[in-house]
Amino acid sequence: MKTAACALASALFLATPVWATDVPAWQGFAANSQHTAAAPAKGQPLDKVRWKLAIDTAPPQAPRGLRGASAALAHYASPMITAANTVLVPVKTSSKGDFEIDAVAGKSGKNIWTMKTDYLLPPYDWVPPLPAQLTPQNRLYIAGPGGTVYFRDTPDSASGTTGQFAFYGMAAYEKNEKTYNSNVMIDTPITADAKGNIYFGFVVLASNPAGLESGIARIDAKGKGTWISAKTAALDPQITQVAMNCAPALSPDGATLYIAVSNGSIGYLVGLNAKNLRPRYRMSKPLTDPQTGDDAEVWDDSSASPTVAPDGSVYYGVTASSTNTDEHNCRGWLLAFSGDLATEKTPGSFGWDETVSIVPAKAVPRAGTKGAYYLMSKYNNYIDCGSGDGQNRIAILDPFATQQDKYSDVTVMKEVETILNPTKSPAGGVYEWCINSAVVDSKGKSVIANAEDGNVYRWNLATNAFSQQLYLNAPTFEAYTSTLIGPDGTTYAINDATLYAVWK
């Protein structure tokens, strides 16, 4: 992989890709650069599995006590889908973390091409996903070693131009490949803006010739890169890293890049100038637990990422403070901010390891709101933490209205609708919702989410009931994953290390 890509990239560093006629149906994590998780088409009925594909040939396993004999402790990357319905699937091919992208036809699941990467995982507890993104210009970016990225154009074809970029320069990388490969790793999903510029977080483990420190990088479509350290982005010398698995998000006008940074425990949400990564906005204090007033926890085991709403508000999930985790039943908090991060708004009652989706107000016809949208949130109440009763739900929240939190004395976002997982768990209560970002089918007035019980569900927002469910596999405790919809209405759900394509 590396030899061919380097040779091509060295030849004039390759031209900017031609603007695609049709924007991809699903660019990557949570669909787009604001992470709204909006479906590109009305979802087909969840009648049957059209095809399936293993996305991890050696899932990590660990004992989980009450939750079952074992668990797949890994976060899995979202597939990407072109406008022509080619599905680009990140696949883990070994226990040590070798990866590839399998391009398959959305209709049949038939393989079109495969591209391997020698990307090296950063140090981890739960296995991180392969960072990858499809730009509006139909260029696929995949994380490579040493903080580099590979790209491939014309992903609908069996062959396409490939290359490799380094945000600190390919000449520097090629001169000291071993050093960079050992000490610099991309550790967040990749996000692309409307012009094809990409953004990601990276971790640096030791000194290097370029003087890199853990931080945030930007690469334009011609391969020119820039970066900023996490501590400079936060204007705090105690900050040491980007929050692991935190996908950068962009403001609706593309001018501001939002990402979380931390010292491995507490941290900030920051807003950077998307053109040059200079600090633009920063909270006046670290992310805070609304109940205790203490610093909230920003865990590397989480995959929470900012969601930016159409009005510019920013939503980001955190774990409760270290003194309060059990008291709030390990639910964490959904923190809400104005676009300039100067004003903190009413929090949501759940935030641990989730990225909320944006639900247009018209998709919830029974409710009324002062705003133009609601938030779709995971709403588990873990039975093995604090006073949690195992009544695990998903929720539609109104960020413009309030109520008393059921689990604390905090005023939180109003619950417009909630719905309980229907399957009893042997651990007590019901099975959890294993989602990070759930797809919003606004044309179908529904949300599609997959659960730990092995089913994928259509939640009808007009009736607040499950109008459909489809059994995929036996219940498996696993990391939270995304659901998505393709341009033909096919639903894609990950369960038990398998990608399922579901339709009528």
Question: In a few lines, what is going on in this structure?
Answer:
The chain has 504 residues and is mainly β.
Task: Describe the overall structure.
Residues 1-15 and 65-69 have low confidence and may be disordered. The protein is mainly beta and 504 residues long. The chain is built from four helices and 37 strands. The strands form nine sheets. Strands 12, 13, 14, 15 and 16 form a five-stranded antiparallel beta sheet that branches. Strands 17, 18, 19, 20 and 21 form a five-stranded antiparallel beta sheet that branches. The protein starts with a helix and ends with a strand.
Spatial separation of the terminal alpha carbons: 38 Å
Number of β-strand runs: 37
How many strands, which pairing sense, and closed or not: the largest β-sheet? 5 strands, antiparallel
Overall body shape = globular
Please identify the oligomeric state.
single chain
Please give the radius of gyration in angstroms: 21 Å
In DSSP terms (H or I, runs of 4 or more residues), the helix count works out at 4
Q: What structural category arises from helix and sheet content?
A: mainly beta
Range of helix content: under 10%
Unreliable residue runs? 1-15, 65-69
Q: What is the average of the pLDDT values?
A: 92
